[in-house]
Amino acid sequence: MKSLPIEVQSLACERDQRELFDAVCFSLLPGKVLQVAGPNGSGKTSLLRILAGLLPAAAGDVRYGGESVLSGAGRERWRLSRLYIGHAPAVKAALTPEENLAWLCALSEPASRERIWAALAEVGLRGFEDVPCQNLSAGQQRRVALARLYLERHPVWILDEPFTAIDRKGVAALEAQVQGHAARGGTVILTTHHSLEHLNGLDVLDLGQVA
Hints:
Helix 3 (about 95-105) packs across helix 4. The longest helix is centred in the C-terminal third of the chain and has 16 residues, at about 170-185. Helix content is about 30%, strand content about 25%. It has six helices and nine strands, in the order E-E-E-H-E-E-H-E-H-H-H-E-H-E-E. A five-stranded parallel beta sheet has the order 6-7-8-3-9, with helices on both faces. A four-stranded antiparallel beta sheet has the order 2-1-4-5, with helices on one face. The protein is α/β, with parallel strands linked by helices.
């Protein structure tokens, strides 16, 4: 599924009566990867949560295909168009990887057992389908969350520190997945301390310059 143009207009964020950033503006065409950079406390995670519709903006607007995603009819289309994976793995410890993915996918696009197992194989977790996530390492739990990238057909990915706790092989696989999604006409917005300079279609937004 190809993404639509994204426009961010004069976006501002306040937390605990403190302004994190103001007048953030950018536009993204399909096929682009945007890395949100900046020092700790500059609002990187807050920006991603605003874009995902999980945090209100103090001012400004976000438009997808010309429609506002912060209010009105555009909000529902945006919810169905974007996949958000936060800094925490957001998996239930008592559930297995298969159970977690089945539950998460059911919120937007139910997935069969065969597709879930194939996605777990892609992230190196084949054979761990029925192991409770509380028995997995931090890196393996992160891989469970990232398996959603192989299951849910959303054109826009919003990823907060997706490279956290995964090994070199996992990093290479995730880079390839991000690049492939953009090459297919998708859009990726992410935060990371990992260097992405070698990726095609990469733009960088430094919140440290607008905070």
